[in-house]
Design goal:
The complex is a heterodimer of chains A (about 425) and B (about 260).
Chain A (H helix, E strand, L loop, with lengths): L1 E5 L11 H4 L14 H20 L4 E4 L13 H9 L6 E4 L11 H14 L3 E4 L5 H7 L7 H17 L4 E4 L4 E5 L13 E5 L3 H10 L2 E4 L4 H18 L9 E9 L3 H19 L15 H8 L15 H6 L3 E4 L1 H15 L3 E5 L7 H14 L35 H7 L2
Parallel strand pairs in A: 1-2, 1-11, 2-3, 3-4, 4-7, 7-8, 8-9, 9-10, 9-11
Antiparallel strand pairs in A: 5-6
Helix pairs in contact in A: 2-13, 3-4, 4-6, 7-8
Chain B lengths: L1 E7 L4 E8 L4 E5 L9 H7 L3 E5 L16 H14 L5 E6 L1 H12 L4 E7 L19 H8 L6 H7 L5 H22 L18 E6 L8 H9 L3 E6 L6 H4 L1 H12 L2
Parallel strand pairs in B: 3-4, 3-5, 5-6, 6-7, 7-8
Antiparallel strand pairs in B: 1-2, 2-4
Helix pairs in contact in B: 1-9
Classes of the chains: A alpha/beta (about 425), B alpha/beta (about 260).
Chain lengths: ~425, ~260
């Protein structure tokens, strides 16, 4: 079983009346709410949190890509991964991912990912999301009619750029290049493992299964909804004759660990509510550009939905979020038990854990990471061992030339590490 | 008026064509909402033989997957018009259809004798941005479509079928109309038409609903400036869909221009 710490890099200091006063956290979120000095702190706190998770034994640390979005402001995840590459040693750098349809030309992704793989010593996991409608259509202006086609063409070009030894030309619909011959190329052969983060589109399952890529269901709806989607994924795998190796599946879960249920509710409650009620406050007009979803997906979704759309989700309490499975919260034992259930029910080999979510401040995040890493994960690592092999993982250099590992500044651990 | 299906480019496109009326032929090119069999077309068909194709990607019109961009659409229309023997005739068109009509007229100035265009798209003025119909919720869009939201036309348009099968059908039609319109208009409805308008030699009527909140009436002046032979008519108590709100006045205005 592998565990990755996922970080959204949220803006942790939106005003209390954000939801009432502004229509969207994404696309047209007002610039006056952004303080670059606060951001300086937030970026560095985030990098500290990810490095800490790595030092405490998470198998991977994840960054992702969003644009004009206060719930995640890493428009260039590669910059974050580069910042992480030299202060970590063994941990996988999971860039989940580059929205490849937005990079012009797509060989930019091939080049930057190759750089990251070389600098890190072969530790890159390459994520290729299609990208949300907010990011791709409304911010980057990509026509929804061509987005998916561009995505498929970009993937084809990137893989070829990594693997074709001779100089080649590429006469695509969206990119035309005469001399493709990237320098550098990745350490990992034939290329870094490719993960496809998806939000539940049917087409994405079939495509990742056929390509042999890992499919990661990334949503904030928690494990109850997650089960429905993952069941669909495993049914597709069966239909396509692909063996149900759990390591070809990933899932995202918000987790809060504390000393008691009530302590967790007190400490994490406001931050969980901040996440769901402010960070997911998205203007419905930006959710779905016409043509972003295929007619098949629309048809499948419509059949439960007479007359109800353009509605905003209601405000949720921490209690709601725990009951609905959006957040797994409790003592280490409670969290361990629930995560074991999730892992088995959804049949996943890669669990991406969000230990910092919403407005969780740095110290509380570090505490949550420490509790999770030392009191929960060790009890779950044995799952799938001996049954399945992980073919979707990094193959790093044995003796990388990197600066020393993170010097732990956390006082509790520094005492034991002699720092 | 009756519908027949026309096969274009060896069956690559199956195009429904609504047709009817006596008189000389008139081409009608619909807008972002799709082709409506409405009072306005009936009034036109009293005086002309109206030929109203559905653009690929709307309704039952197939072949949209072969059209990547506006130029592919224009060449499809050249094929359609040549095949149907439609040349030297007037064209009436709305919004997206009017943009297509202007592009075709610029490509082949002799194709159309006269153009009557209702709220044409194709220019962009940052001081009067065209509403982003692709970023509005359905209720917001409905509120912007009509001059008078309480009018019968507006009420009828806002009605969503409740019966599940009809609802799914309705939503799929809208999804098709919007996603196909987006192909040619997203994110900003400007594909460089202003560079070509000088070639439109045929007399052109620009009709605007006075309270059009989708394509601001200010664009009438922009189009008039670029076009060699253009005049403007503004209809009171009409918005983006004057064919719904003022069908008689619209028909009168258009017919008077076409038969002058």
């Amino acid at each position: 079983m592998k565990f990755e710490m996922f970080h959204l890099m949220p803006y942790r200091e939106l005003p209390p009346d954000f939801r009432e006063k502004y229509r969207s956290v994404w696309v047209d979120v007002p610039s006056h709410l952004f303080d670059p000095v606060a951001a300086h702190r937030m970026y560095n706190d985030t990098l500290d949190e990810l490095e800490y998770a790595a030092a405490l034994g998470y198998d991977g640390i994840c960054v992702n890509e969003h644009h004009q979005n206060a719930y995640g402001f890493m428009p260039s995840p590669n910059i974050m991964a580069a910042a992480l590459a030299r202060r970590t040693r063994d941990v996988a750098l999971v860039v989940l991912g580059n929205s490849i349809a937005l990079y012009n030309p797509p060989i930019r992704v091939a080049e930057e990912f190759a750089m990251l793989d070389c600098i890190s010593g072969g530790r890159l996991v390459a994520g290729f999301p299609v990208g949300t409608s907010m990011d791709t259509n409304y911010v980057y202006g990509i026509n929804p009619a061509t987005l998916r086609d561009r995505y498929y063409e970009a993937e084809e070009l990137i893989i070829k750029a990594w693997t074709e030894p001779e100089v080649f030309s590429f006469d695509g619909k969206y990119t035309q290049l005469r001399y493709v011959n990237i320098w550098p190329r990745p350490i990992q052969k034939p290329h870094p493992p490719v993960w496809i983060p998806g939000g539940g589109s049917i087409e994405t399952w079939d495509w990742s299964l056929k390509k042999g890529y890992l499919y990661a269901y990334l949503s904030y709806s928690g494990f109850k909804r997650g089960k429905t989607v993952m069941d669909g994924y495993w049914r597709a795998a069966e239909r396509l004759g692909v063996e149900p190796n759990p390591y070809r599946a990933g899932f995202l879960q918000l987790v809060a660990v504390g000393e008691s249920e009530s302590e967790v509710a007190d400490k994490f409650g406001p931050h969980g509510e901040y996440f769901y009620n402010k960070m997911l406050h998205i203007y419905p007009g930006f959710a779905d550009a016409p043509g972003y979803r295929t007619l098949e997906t629309i048809k499948a979704g419509l059949l439960g939905q007479v007359g109800r759309f353009g509605d905003r989700p209601p405000e949720l309490t921490f209690k709601d979020l725990v009951e609905q499975g959006n957040i797994i919260a409790g003592t280490p034992d409670q969290v361990t038990e629930q995560l074991e259930q999730v892992i088995k029910d959804l049949h996943i080999g890669h669990l991406m854990i969000l230990n910092q979510f919403g407005s969780i401040p740095h110290d509380l995040a570090m505490e949550n990471i420490r509790r999770c890493a030392t009191q929960v994960l060790p009890k779950l690592r044995h799952l799938w061992e001996g049954e399945w092999e992980d073919h979707w993982w990094i193959k790093p250099l044995a003796n990388p030339q990197l600066p020393g590992p993170l010097r732990l500044r956390d006082s509790a651990l520094a005492a034991t590490s002699g720092d | 008026m009756e519908t027949r299906t026309v096969s274009v480019r060896n069956g690559m496109f199956q195009t429904p064509v609504l047709e009817g009326g006596t008189g000389s032929p008139l081409l009608f090119l619909h807008g972002t909402h799709g082709l409506q069999r409405d009072r306005f077309l009936n009034l036109l068909s009293d005086r002309f033989h109206v030929i109203a194709p559905t653009h690929p990607g709307f309704g039952e019109a197939t072949g949209s997957q072969h059209l990547l961009d506006l130029w592919d659409l224009l060449y499809y229309y050249l094929d359609f018009l040549d095949q149907e023997g439609l040349r030297g005739l007037p064209v009436v068109a709305h919004s997206l259809g009017a943009m297509v009509a202007l592009e075709l007229a610029a490509l082949q100035p002799e194709r159309f004798t006269r153009l009557a265009l209702i709220a044409p798209l194709g220019l962009w003025n940052p001081e009067h941005p065209v509403a982003d119909i692709f970023a509005l919720t359905p209720s917001e869009l409905a509120a912007l479509m009509y001059c008078d939201a309480s009018s019968e036309a507006a009420q009828a348009a806002a009605r969503v079928p409740q019966e599940p099968d009809a609802f799914v059908q309705y939503m799929l039609e809208r999804a098709k109309a919007m996603s196909t319109s987006a192909k040619y208009l997203f994110p900003i409805p400007n594909r460089g038409l202003s560079k070509r308008l000088h070639r439109v030699q045929a007399p052109t009527l620009l009709v605007w609903g006075e309270c059009d909140r989708i394509v601001p009436p200010a664009y009438a002046e922009d189009f008039r400036r670029y076009l060699p032979h253009a005049e403007v008519a503004v209809l009171p108590r009409a918005g983006y869909l004057p064919q719904d709100e003022q069908p008689e006045t619209l028909a009168e205005t258009v017919l008077a221009f076409l038969t002058r």
